[in-house]
Design a protein that fits this description.
Chain lengths: ~525, ~300
């Protein structure tokens, strides 16, 4: 019972820490009505990300991890929440707009019963995820050999500079892998006072809840409540995220990366169709933070960060070119305002990249000290000649990849078929900038997987064959977001996704100028 | 007309809820009144005449029975509560059916200005939603059944106790090292095995291993089907032992290229442990395990 209370207190502290962060990210005077599902979903994700990052930064600056730090962190979450509630109670008019539930807003919602039914089903799925997760101890290769082993060492030695983790002869897999999961696991161990890997798995269904709530919240805000929550339910039921073994039921990093990467892309996409420039900047910062969490969870996260930047830039350039070729302009928008919009978008790309990069700097600085045994060294191996020499690997990896995506739908889900159908049935919508960004992002991720197969020093069939399904899991939220955007009409009060309202194009130069 | 339709839906919902209440109450009574031991004995009797199968059948039956107890109690409470509010429930159900048909057939947008999607899009979208939810149901059921199958092995035990999903030999070596070495010791291992699980379950003991570069990116296969390259103790550079200063040195080989049958009985403590473990006083292990204390040689 005591353990349960401790664990709930620790998890609750992290979520409330995230809730306070959300208060700052989504301003109290928000012009947009933010659904409470989005607020709490984001609170969970940001809270877990902050727990990992703050533990790392504390230890990186020679602070001692352990009970005192963990209880302090959890206490900080609870205290900051109490403080924000107290502040809100002093300014009722300002804070009342923060947690506006769409059901309580003035405009009527289409399909309110459907929304309620989806919410109930999602709640049941989350409870089942917690129950199923707690019914097994950690038992897979990666979850023990890479992450849990580091978590135990961090708990024993109370520092990321532990002599064991710095020793090349100490037995651990991928010593240079990021420390987000080991740090959040050791956070619970420190609160409990001993290691018990079943309890550490609680973070993962919590991340599942965070992903599904954020996704449903943003989609319901952008695409209408009924369709948004339906898409949230579809995401929650994708078998690869919560099948019998992998996904959020185990403590491997793939589902966690899916959560962080999915939310980063979600907010980049949201920022592309957001009316206010101020919120577009906030969303770029938010996406930057969550993308840095993905990179601090698994190395694929760094690749996704690069892919996000490249696909965003490419979508921007392509959309501008298409607009120039077709001679189409937003009503009332001059060529100067188009240029200002482009400049503003470029600034957002820069903001996103630099924020995520700055977050990751301490980690990359620490990583250089870690042993290199069993590391794949993809970047070091990358060269034109190496890629050219290994082109023949595509003869195996391409059919394998398409079989995993489309052939094995009974095991991993129908999302790839449905994504394809969504593009084919509405091709015109697929070339709008936000959807183009999602499509390029997906292609970038798939290309990265094939390149990894070409460069890895391991046997191709063993290496890719054993990991493709887990990699594909990491981009499932992006596929579902594409499906949601493709098959939806915009919710009332918003222009078509990707087209800025007139007032925005007019206000960009002023807003941009003052910020830069 | 509308009134009659609502009345019909109300009656249908009331009948369905009454039936659901009756079924869930009966099920709850049955599963809570019949003791778990009765179900376990029945499962034991029905399982094949083999101890392993009987162990699995008994554990699985116990898990399924407890799942039924929890879910039937929850369902009973839910249906009774809904029965008390059956008029509201009928309104909700008729609205839900309307909403679902709207979603599957015509429109999605909110508010006043509803726009229609093209017919083919609506058809493909509706079919996709139904297919995804159907597949999800199958996976959920499969997942729960898998948890019931896992139950006999894992129950609510800590991973450190049950050492899940590793080979029997790994399990034996971990248990031996736990008894033979103090918790804070440093153990240098020479081995042709991947030692990550040993390292994990032996913490806070630190396991040290100088991995052969040829084995770095290879994944082991079951039953030693893939021989991983390894250093023997004599191959290790002398400086390594001096640098690492282990408390113990362990030689642990399972692959045919490294196992020396004459060394199987070299470590008397290990031999005693494994014979006791196997409950066979004449058992001779097929793999090499030799643990010895290491003291730094005098300069």
């Amino acid at each position: 019972m005591m353990i349960l209370l401790t664990v709930v207190g620790g998890l609750g502290g992290s979520v409330l820490l995230g809730r306070t962060a959300v208060q700052f990210v989504i301003a109290p005077r928000s012009e947009e009505k933010t659904p409470s599902s989005e607020i709490w979903g984001l609170s969970i994700v940001l809270g877990i990300g902050l727990t990992g990052w703050l533990s790392f930064l504390w230890s990186w600056s020679n602070g001692r991890l352990g009970f005192a730090f963990s209880i302090g962190l959890a206490g900080l979450g609870w205290l900051t929440r109490l403080w924000t509630i107290w502040q809100s109670s002093r300014q009722p008019m300002q804070s009342s707009t923060l947690a506006v539930d769409p059901h309580r807003s003035n405009s009527p919602i289409a399909g309110p019963r459907l929304v309620k039914a989806c919410q109930w089903l999602i709640a049941i799925l989350v409870v089942l995820a917690f129950a199923q997760s707690m019914l097994t101890p950690q038992r897979f290769w990666d979850e023990r050999a890479i992450f849990a082993i580091k978590a135990k060492v961090l708990f024993e030695d109370s520092s990321i500079n532990s002599s064991a983790l710095l020793n090349p002869e100490f037995v651990q897999y991928h010593p240079q892998y990021p420390l987000m999961l080991p740090l959040i696991e050791q956070h619970l161990y420190s609160l409990m006072g001993h290691t018990e890997d079943r309890w550490a798995k609680l973070w993962f269904p919590l991340l599942y809840a965070g992903l599904v709530l954020s996704f449903s919240g943003v989609c319901s805000r952008r695409l209408g409540a009924a369709w948004g929550w339906t898409c949230g339910l579809l995401l929650a039921t994708v078998p690869i995220l919560m099948p019998d073994e992998y996904g959020f039921l185990c403590a491997q990093a793939d589902a966690a990366v899916a959560c962080f990467h999915g939310i980063a892309v979600l907010y980049l996409w949201d920022g592309m169709s957001c009316a206010s420039p101020k919120f577009r900047l906030r969303k770029a910062l938010l996406a930057g933070f969550v993308a840095s969490c993905a990179a601090f969870t698994k190395d694929e996260g760094t690749a996704f960060l690069i892919i996000d930047v490249l696909s965003w830039t490419a979508a921007l350039v392509l959309a501008t070119l298409m607009r120039a070729v077709s001679g189409r302009k937003s009503p009332g928008a001059s060529s100067e305002s188009h240029f200002a919009m482009l400049r503003f978008d470029a600034f957002r790309v820069l903001l996103f990249t630099s924020f995520a990069g700055t977050m990751l700097l301490p980690w990359f600085s620490h990583r250089r000290r870690l042993p290199e045994v069993t590391e794949m060294h993809y970047v070091g191996r990358m060269s034109i000649s190496a890629l050219y020499d290994r082109l023949s690997t595509l003869r195996w990896s391409l059919p394998h990849l398409s079989s995993r995506m489309f052939g094995e739908w009974k095991d991993w889900g129908l999302q790839w078929w449905i994504g394809l159908a969504a593009i084919v049935t509405r091709p015109g919508r697929a070339i709008e900038q936000p959807q183009l960004f999602l499509i390029l992002n997906l292609f970038g991720a798939l290309a990265a997987l094939l390149v990894a197969g070409m460069l890895a020093p391991a046997e191709l069939e063993e290496h890719l064959g054993g990991s493709t399904h887990r990699f594909l899991m990491q981009i499932v939220p992006v596929v579902l977001l594409l499906v949601a955007a493709q098959w939806a009409e915009p919710a009332e009060g918003f222009e078509s996704v990707g087209k800025l309202p007139d007032s925005t194009t007019q206000s960009i130069p002023r807003e941009h100028g003052t910020r830069v | 007309m509308l009134f009659r339709k609502n009345r019909t839906i109300e009656q249908a919902v009331a009948v369905c809820l009454a039936a659901a209440c009756c079924i869930s109450v009966c099920l709850s009574l049955a599963v809570w009144l019949i003791p778990v031991d009765v179900i376990k004995v029945r499962a034991f009797d029905q399982a094949p005449e083999e101890s392993f199968a009987q162990f699995e059948a008994v554990g699985k039956a116990e898990a399924i029975w407890w799942m039924l107890r929890v879910s039937s109690a929850g369902a009973t409470l839910f249906f009774m509560y809904t029965w008390r509010r059956r008029i509201a429930a009928a309104g909700f159900m008729s609205g839900l059916i309307e909403d679902v048909f709207d979603l599957l057939r015509r429109k999605t947008s909110s508010g006043k200005s509803q726009k229609s999607l093209p017919g083919i899009v609506v058809w493909v979208r509706g079919t996709s939603i139904v297919a995804m939810l159907g597949l999800a149901c199958i996976h959920q059921i499969h997942g729960m059944s898998k948890r019931a199958s896992d139950w006999p092995y894992y129950r609510l035990n800590n991973g450190d106790e049950i050492l899940p999903n590793i080979s029997d030999s790994n399990r034996a070596v971990i248990r031996y090292l736990r008894t033979a070495t103090p918790e804070q010791s440093r153990i240098l291992v020479v081995s042709d095995q991947k030692l990550f699980f040993l390292s994990y379950y032996l913490l806070p003991r630190h396991l040290l291993h100088h991995m052969h570069p040829d084995a770095e990116h290879l994944i082991p296969r079951k039953n030693q089907e893939r021989q991983l390259a390894a250093y023997r103790l004599s191959d290790l550079p002398a400086t390594l032992l001096r640098e690492q200063r282990p408390d113990y040195v362990l030689e642990y080989f399972e692959g045919p290229e490294y196992v020396e049958s004459e060394r199987a009985t070299e470590d008397a403590d290990w031999l005693r442990f494994i014979r006791n473990w196997q409950r066979d006083p004449n058992y001779v292990p097929t793999y090499t395990v030799v643990l010895r204390r290491w003291t730094e040689p005098a300069k």
